[in-house]
Predict the structure of Flagellar biosynthesis protein FlhF.
Amino acid sequence: MKVKVFTASNMQEAMAQVKGDLGRDAVILHTRRFRRGGFLGFFGKEMVEVMAALDTPPPAPVPERKAPAPQVLVPPRQSDDDAKVTALQLEISNMRKLVEQVLAKLPRQEKQRHPLYELLVRNDIDAVIAENLVQGLPEEGPLTGTNPAFVRQLLLERLTNHLQRVEGIVIPESGCKVVAFIGPTGVGKTTTIAKLAASFAFGQGLKLAVVTADTYRISAVEQLKTYADIIDVPLDIVYTPDEMKAALYRHRDKRLVLIDTAGRSPRNHYQLAELQALLAVDPYIETHLVLSSTTKYADALETVNRFSVCSPQKFLFTKIDEATNFGTVFNLLYQFPTTLSYITTGQNVPDDIEMANPAKLANMILRD
Ligand SMILES: Nc1nc2c(ncn2[C@@H]2O[C@H](COP(=O)(O)OP(=O)(O)OP(=O)(O)O)[C@@H](O)[C@H]2O)c(=O)[nH]1
Ligand SMILES: [Mg+2]
């Protein structure tokens, strides 16, 4: 990794230097304003310092898809490996799509599809994934003598097996658990935090605090402040990684700290690098990537890929109540070896949140 420090009189100039020197893929690690010249730090010219890095990793081997491993809590943000695996999986998925498009253009031999394949694709399960899922399933119907309910049950079991990695927030016996929620704008991060804060505070009587780094809009802070006041938990507002560190230190006596972050556009590298720097202050922050289940699979894939720089350990799906099907949820969990934490099912705080239930989700995927 190449790390360099740039100094300029304003942020735009500094960013231009970063881009010119390290290119578009550079990641901003740290920014700071300071005064140059003047007397005792006063009257000097305000300058900006930006520390940026460019990662030039060697090509990694393509990971093999394995059967879901028994749930082990992955040590948070150990390395960039998670991000690389995520990027590779996206690459594989794109290649698969390409192959599929080419095959679709070849002169077609009439291929008999399994009837449940059509149902999966109707429910927005990716065509290649649907093909894998029905492979080897017995044909149903009077000619084969196989009971359709039995075949459906077999498929349900296959779906359920792919949804086994489920785990919410686990509070350790001692010490403080810190969980951050990241994701695109408007997916429901703040509302979800309010639901979780209420259920941990009221349901389990847990001593907790909420920290928000969403300082872009005044209304964002006010939204969380209202919830924090009602639930009667402290709320800290942080602007910089140093302030984040200080807030976490201040709340070290709590059992749980929930961190809200500003919604980020998956396409904005600078915003994502800023978010990455904020969460890098403590390697034990568990990060949940919040995704709306109403998002199209292709968009959700891109979001997961872009947010992989923040190495999220878990996915959390919101707006299950608004989704017409659960294709996106299933496709992502099939594609990425990531644990599913919660699903949210409406706007009501604190009721509309639950631990994901694999069998229930699988049934929802096979809706006619
Ligand atoms: N239907 C439905 N709406 C939800 C759910 N969760 C959140 N919302 C709504 O989605 C909207 C956005 O929610 P927020 O919690 O502000 O989303 P956010 O991700 O914090 O948004 P930003 O801070 O702007 O990035 C609000 O109107 C919420 O009430 C859900 O599970 N179902
Ligand atoms: Mg918010």
User: Anything to note?
Assistant: DSSP finds twelve helices and eleven strands in the chain.
